[in-house]
Write a structure and sequence with these properties.
By secondary structure, this protein is of the alpha/beta class. It contains 15 helices and twelve strands. Strands 1, 2, 3, 4, 5 and 11 form a six-stranded mixed beta sheet that branches. Helix 3 packs antiparallel against helix 12. The protein is globular and about 60 Å long. The relative contact order is 0.16. The chain binds (2S)-2-hydroxy-2-methyl-3-oxobutanoic acid. (2S)-2-hydroxy-2-methyl-3-oxobutanoic acid binds next to loops.
């Protein structure tokens, strides 16, 4: 458990238990906190989190240890959202769209084709829009979000059956979407048949053909090896998605202030470094995925956006999000509906 310090555990063993193992434990961190995420260890998010964990350990002189659990080792995103709320998990990086089942406003960045590129994304998410969402997250009272959102990326559509060239190619497509109402709504508006599946089951669902398609950024298609079970990649760029670095509020506030300051500094810096990594990968992964056998095609984004418009996707979600959220989004990205 996060709040039981290892010192206490060791003390309980008594003098008779002193062994090389016990001595090692005695020197272990005063605070050991768990950080869960759904990505592969090779994804930049995990690489940068590991670096941050080391720096935090150094700067706290070993008092704080961040234990990282990649690959949904502690449970699916849906399960882990429950655990971060209760405090069974201390930190969790989660898509704002999935978080929206608890904090509706957190899905706002997922509105179809809202962002035309990374400049607009970071201006919005490091500016008013991000602040609005973080304030809404804080209102949950159970969790808080660190200031810098981590990059997931611009999402592309992959299939095992045929390329998506026009919106009509989505008709009836059995596509996996993450567990979030905005995702289901958007792919229904495209005319597809979306199925909600947590990320830890995506590879096997594609492999066993429970679904024929999924959508994710290049960095995930590569590090989760989705190219092994998908053939076509259509660069629909339909959504920008990011991971909020969440903390359980009670466990966070139980830490001494100086330790919190060190963690905050290194986690936010790691987010900024990870953004650059993902953007750099976007430039090289297309060629690498082609070399691994994927077939790429580009689409006319305007046609897909029109399809969402004519299905009333924008008017429906404007109403759901409310005027405050919608106008904060439009202040960053321009008029949407
Ligand atoms: O579940 C997904 O597709 C992923 C990994 O992109 C998210 O966490 C939203």
């Amino acid at each position: 458990m996060a709040l039981v310090s290892r010192r206490h555990v060791t003390a309980g063993l008594g003098a008779a238990a002193i062994s090389p193992f016990a001595i090692r434990r005695a020197r272990a961190a005063e605070f050991t906190y768990k950080y869960a995420n759904n990505l592969a260890p090779t994804h930049p998010l995990n690489k940068r989190a590991h670096e941050a964990a080391q720096k935090i350990k150094d700067d706290t002189k070993g008092r704080f240890e961040l234990q990282i659990f990649p690959l949904s080792q502690l449970g699916s995103d849906t399960d882990t959202l429950g655990q971060i709320r209760s405090g069974a998990v201390d930190f969790f990086t989660l898509s704002g769209l999935i978080l929206s089942t608890l904090v509706p406003a957190a899905a706002i960045n997922g509105v179809g084709f809202a962002f035309d590129g990374y400049d607009t994304v970071w201006k919005a998410m490091d500016g008013e829009l991000g602040k609005y969402v973080r304030d809404e997250i804080a209102k949950s009272r159970q969790i808080i979000a660190f200031e810098k959102i981590w990059d997931n990326g611009f999402r592309q559509t992959t299939t095992s059956t045929k390329p998506i060239q026009t919106p009509a190619d989505f008709d009836g497509l059995k596509i996996r979407v993450p567990a979030a109402p905005l995702w289901t709504s958007m792919f229904k508006a495209f005319g597809a048949a979306p199925t909600t599946i947590n990320f830890n089951e995506v590879y096997s669902s594609l492999q066993s053909k429970v679904v024929d398609a999924q959508e994710n950024p290049y960095a995930i298609i590569d590090t989760a090896k989705l190219y092994e079970v998908q053939t076509y990649c259509s660069t629909t760029n339909h959504m920008w998605d990011g991971f909020w670095f969440l903390a359980n509020r009670r466990n966070w506030e139980a830490l001494p202030e100086d330790i919190r300051a060190v963690i905050t500094k290194h986690i936010n810096a790691a987010a900024v470094a990870e953004r650059a990594d993902v953007e750099a990968l976007d430039k090289v992964l297309r060629e690498q995925l082609i070399a691994k056998g994927m077939k790429f095609n580009d689409v006319k984004a305007a046609d897909f956006r029109d399809k969402l418009r004519s299905a009333n996707f924008y008017s429906e979600w404007k109403q759901k999000f409310g005027d405050k959220a919608w106008s904060t989004l439009e202040a960053s990205v321009g008029k949407l509906s």
